[in-house]
Recover the amino acids of this structure.
């Protein structure tokens, strides 16, 4: 139980995420960030105007817009939200397993996420993939809580998280 949890926390620690960001060798390409760069570097009104005709969900672009306001443009800075979402997804998968009273299965699921080449690679891109994974895991965790406990607060949070998920990545 707790010993396995410490391994999960070691992977998603700030130091581990910083090392991951600093060791990325893939250069941002026009496909990865180009169209978003001009959009999120402008004013909020410009971003909102663009979102009316864009095929991508607005949540990730709004997060990128906010990140650009807080820090300077650098490859690792614009990748930070996706890498943080990856770490949070691993923690939420652990929470799902605890909610289902299956800590060993949760540890295995977290370990698989930690070594999954697809999960790692997509969380290094400036795309909403890892945020979608995080919101999907959160949605499932809240759904399980609603089914088990039936609290109205969990139901409202489930609706909000699922709604934000739909606005993050259009399928």
């Amino acid at each position: 139980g707790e010993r396995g949890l410490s391994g999960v926390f070691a992977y998603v620690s700030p130091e581990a995420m910083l090392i991951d960001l600093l060791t990325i060798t893939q250069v941002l390409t026009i496909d990865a960030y180009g169209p978003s760069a001009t959009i999120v570097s402008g004013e909020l009104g410009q971003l909102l105007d663009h979102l009316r005709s864009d095929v991508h969900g607005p949540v990730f672009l709004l997060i990128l817009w906010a990140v650009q306001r807080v820090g300077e443009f650098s490859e690792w800075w614009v990748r930070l939200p996706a890498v943080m979402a990856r770490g949070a997804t691993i923690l939420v998968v652990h929470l799902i397993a605890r909610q289902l009273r299956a800590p060993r299965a949760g540890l295995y699921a977290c370990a698989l996420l930690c070594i999954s080449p697809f999960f790692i690679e997509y969380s290094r891109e400036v795309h909403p993939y890892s945020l979608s994974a995080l919101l999907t895991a959160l949605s499932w965790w809240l759904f399980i809580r609603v089914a088990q406990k039936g609290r109205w607060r969990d139901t409202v949070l489930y609706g909000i998280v699922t709604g934000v998920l739909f606005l993050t990545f259009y399928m």
Observations:
- The chain is about 75% helix and 0% strand.
- The first helix runs from residue 2 to 11.
- The CA atoms of residues 56 and 169 lie 6 Å apart.
- The mean pLDDT is 79.
